[in-house]
Structure formats: C-alpha cells, structure tokens
Amino acid sequence: MLQYKLQNFRTGDETMTDNRPIGVFDSGIGGLSTLKTMATILPNESFIFLGDSKNAPYGDKEKDQILQFSRNNVEFLLNKGVKAIVIACNTATSAAKTELMAEYNVPIIGIEPALKPAVEAGNQDILVLGTALTMKLTKFQAQYHRFEDQTQIDLKPLPGLVDIIETGVVSGPAIKDFLADNLSEFNANQIDGVVLGCTHYPFVRNSIQEFFPNANFYDGFLGVTKMLKHKLNEGNLNTDNQEKGQISFYSTEDTPEEIDRYQKLFNQYQVSDADLPTTGTLE
Description:
Belongs to the aspartate/glutamate racemases family. The protein is an alpha/beta fold. It has two domains: 22-111 and 221-275, Rossmann fold (3-Layer(aba) Sandwich), CATH 3.40.50.1860; 115-218, Rossmann fold (3-Layer(aba) Sandwich). The protein is built from eleven helices and nine strands. The strands form two sheets. A five-stranded parallel sheet has the order 4-3-1-2-9, sandwiched between helices. A four-stranded parallel sheet has the order 6-5-7-8.
C-alpha cells in the first residue's frame, strides 16, 4: 500500500493566506458540474480539474481499481502544487476517500449523495439515483440505514447513463429514451425528492425533472463547497487574490479535443439556484 505523504510546502514565515490552486478530480466530465458550482461560490480561488476519462466510468469498476485510479489522480494534482483536493465523484468518495485521507497530508474533501438534506427537508418519498457501486458500499449504506425508518427511500442505479453523458450527449432522444426505460416505474406524483447521487447526472437534470416535475432536487454541490470552505478556513488556506481565479483543465485522455470538450461543458453548465448560498455566505 502506498504510504507516501506529501508535507505542506510552507516553510519559514507562516501566512494567513494561500494562493495555490485547489485540485478537483472525477472519473470524467461529471465533476465539471461540481467545479462550476465551487468556482461560482468561490470566484477568487483557482482550480485545477483532472478528468479521468480514460478510465470512465468508475461505477462499473471494483473498489480496489477505483482506489488506485484515485491515488493516481491525487498524485497528479499534488505534482501541480494544489493546496486541497476535492473528489468530485460520489463513487470515488465512497471507494477511496478514507484511504486517501490516511495516505496524504493535504485536505481531501469528497462529495456524497445528498440524502441527508433531502430527508431533513421533510420529503416523504425520496428517489436516489446513482451508480450501483456507490449504493452498495459501506459509506452510502450507513447513510441509507440511518434514514430508512424516517421516510420512504427508493434506490435506483442507472448503469449506462454515465457512458452516454461521457460522449457529450446531455439532451435529446438518447437521454429521454434511456430515462423513460429506467424511471417510468416510479410514480411521478408520489416522488417529492430526487437525489442526484452521481456528478454526471446534473448535466441531465432538466430531462430528469420532466419525469418528476413536482420533486425537489438535491446534488450535494453546496454541501461539498461548504466543507471545502471550512477546510480552507481551518488551515489558513484561503486565497487573498482579489481577481477572478484561474481554472485549468486536464484529462487522462490528454488530447486537445478532450480539453476543449471539458472547457465547453464547463461553460455550458448552469449552476442551480438551489446550489447557491441563500445568505450570500457559506458561514
């Protein structure tokens, strides 16, 4: 097992700010939705995004494979000089976050299916959409069993949806046909909360909303941004940059076309009002 630990780069005089970028990784393009939300809420911070499109999707891989992919992603980002790392992939958080936190001396934050806020909001019939691996691993199962007696919770893996989104298709007949085949079994009038438990799924949020027009939607982006901000405050890692931060994109496919695709999808993604702080602050 990898035992290497990266020490913080600071030596000598300690400062109360840190202008290094924040690293973000996902199995592919899904984490761009998380990144766009964080960059919107924390506009002065700089970010480096790594999409592991070469190994996407993670949801059909074994836990040990995902852990090794995640280690590779962390090593790449640390070599870019990041000050914190966000796992913008629910599956990778479930499969690898605990081990990564033990192996690396850098703040590591991971997104998780937003079941807790969906339950606390008082929804009576919650549908959780995600990968089969996320739902079967211990981290999510603990969440599920914590709340299963409080409300009706339906779990629905959507194998194949990530593959479609990874091709850049986020609307149109292919998406609608896939969703119709997988979601028609649920009563649209009964479901009042939908948890998007994979960071790819918000790219097709509008299409999913057509099946559940009266439901509240939860994706976890605001929660992971709050946790990131907490870690930055705790470690005196906030930037003092007064200009808009820089965002860099990398992919394990490592082609100009892939990077261009990331940039376009990032620009196209619309952050939901529900993912923005209602008070204008994360505190």
